[in-house]
Amino acid sequence: MTATALLLIDLQHAFAMRTAAGVPRSNPGAEAAIARLVSQARARGVAVMHVHHDDPNPASAFRADQPGGQPLPCAAPLPGEPVFFKTGSSGFSGTGLSTALQDIGITRLIVAGAAIDYCVSSTVRAASDLGFAVDLVTDAVFGFAATGPDGAVHDPDIVLSVTLAALGADFARLVTADTVVWPAA
């Protein structure tokens, strides 16, 4: 079986703060699905890798030294689980993630996180371009409403659906938390 890792993208409190502020979001059950994935990966000895956004903008909620930059409880890293900090949208840009995955023989990624149309999309595309097989867990990702060039606000479920369709067409195999195929323990 292919060497597999669970890759968790930007599961930080800044997103919970947006949701609490009433910003429309997709997949309200994503955190429960993410918690199941994390538990299953750890129980099977699958590597769990975390990517966190650490925005250099002092006003950003996504700073490692601010409450918004802290991990969500469903994806809090355990001691020994690597955390890669990024300042851009892709988890592979300037983080050393690709080298770390290659160093431990990982060729397949199970991906969960947020926001689907930003950092999840960028990371999945980059992973595919780098030759990793990607399983994107559709019920363990979420995003928010998006404003189009005409000023129209697009529903977060539409944003999620369109982004998943694009990623599933060429960059990832779409699975659910219940259909993930884990390596034998």
Evaluate the radius of gyration.
15 Å
Q: Report the β-strand fraction as a percent range.
A: 15-25%
Q: Say what the CATH topology is.
A: Rossmann fold
CATH class: Alpha Beta
CATH superfamily: Isochorismatase-like
Tally of alpha and pi helices = 5
Classify the helix fraction into a percent range: 25-40%
Query: Could you name the ranges where pLDDT drops below 50 across 5 or more consecutive residues?
Result: none
Q: Spatial order of the strands in the main sheet?
A: 3-2-1-4-5-8
CATH hierarchy: architecture: 3-Layer(aba) Sandwich
Strands, count: 8
Structural shape:
globular
Structural class: alpha/beta
Helix-strand sequence? EHHEEHEHEEEHE
Mean pLDDT: 97
Number of domains: 1
Pfam family, one: Isochorismatase
InterPro entries: Isochorismatase-like_dom, Isochorismatase-like_hydrls, Isochorismatase-like_sf
GO molecular function: hydrolase activity
Protein name: Nicotinamidase-related amidase
